[in-house]
Amino acid sequence: MKNRRFLSNIALLIAALVWGFAFVSQEQAAKYVDAFTVNATRSFVAAVALIPLILFTSKKSGRPILERTKADRKLLVKAGVMCGTLLCLSSALQQFGISIYPDNAAVSARSGFITALYVIFVPIIGLLFFKRKVNFTVWLSVAVAVLGLYLLCGTNGLSGIYAGDFLVLSCAVSFSLQILCVDHFIDRVDGVKLAAIQFLACGVESMVLMFIFENPSMSDILLASRYILYLGIMSSGVGYTLQIIGQKYSDNPTVASILMSLESVFAALGGWIILGKALSIPEIIGCIVVFFAIVLAQLPVKEKAKE
């Protein structure tokens, strides 16, 4: 049991590492192709990358690859399209935000930590739209996150706040909606199939927007291909697989969620190690404070026993 728990934690840690370094690939891909092109190509790669996992899980569980009834197939497609549409919006906001940061900014670190604030937005949106109870630690984490964002983005006045920060923050809100959408359907459909269909839907929608608003070039896509392949195969395919394995065998969801939150830390490390973009002292402190807020929002609160 201890070995299984240890291996599950390692799987989640590697998933966070893969996701964190994906911000570097997004930053580099933005130099060659526009946002919708990045998202369309990476989403199609991701959908294909999940096919072996679908075949494996179907064979292991003894379930058919296609859903047995028409109603189940319809529900799966509906869930995939809805989640994929929100994923398309979230990914577009994130990629546009990353693409418009100035060259001297620590893009991977800033976008990584700001995106990770979806952890805080999820329970708040759940309260506003679904009347879900929110623990006091979440409200405390909001105050801490605001302080962290100020240190990360605002210590140099308006000149230190970029338009990319606002877009990436909007993407964190949108990702929260996408997570809640997945949460709504996940108990009624196969999770891996849902992921594949949402990537396919996101790819189709991004491709339509790509041809409307952008001028994609195959030569530019080939120049960005290594980054796109990393995003599709590693970040979506491998990362999602490791998340499933890790969460399946983890006996502590709090530890699991905190391990996955390390994605933001690895994003900062990736930007520093690979791209040589170091953070200033206030930015480093801001990242630490934001990460503390993210962890705080995920800590369970024991309810008082009723007398």
Could you characterize the architecture of this molecule?
This protein has one domain. Helices cover 78% and strands 0% of the residues. It is built from 14 helices and no strands. The chain is globular.
Q: What is the element layout, followed by pairings?
A:
Layout lengths: L1 H28 L5 H15 L1 H11 L8 H30 L7 H9 L2 H13 L5 H19 L8 H23 L5 H23 L4 H6 L1 H25 L3 H9 L1 H11 L7 H18 L9
Task: Quickly list its features.
78% helix, mainly alpha, 307 residues, globular
Task: Produce a short descriptive summary.
This protein has helices spanning 2-29, 35-49, 51-61, 70-99, 107-115, 118-130, 136-154, 163-185, 191-213, 218-223, 225-249, 253-261, 263-273, 281-298. With 307 residues, the chain is an all-alpha fold.
Largest sheet: none
Number of strands: 0
Globular, elongated, flat, extended or rod-shaped: what is the shape? globular
Instruction: Note poorly predicted spans.
Output: none
Number of helices: 14
Structural class given helices, strands, pairing? mainly alpha
What is the alpha-carbon Rg in Å?
A: 19 Å
State the distance separating the first and last CA atoms: 36 Å
Rounded average pLDDT: 89
Helix-strand topology string: HHHHHHHHHHHHHH
Strand content: under 5%
Count of all domains: 1
Percent of residues in helices: over 70%
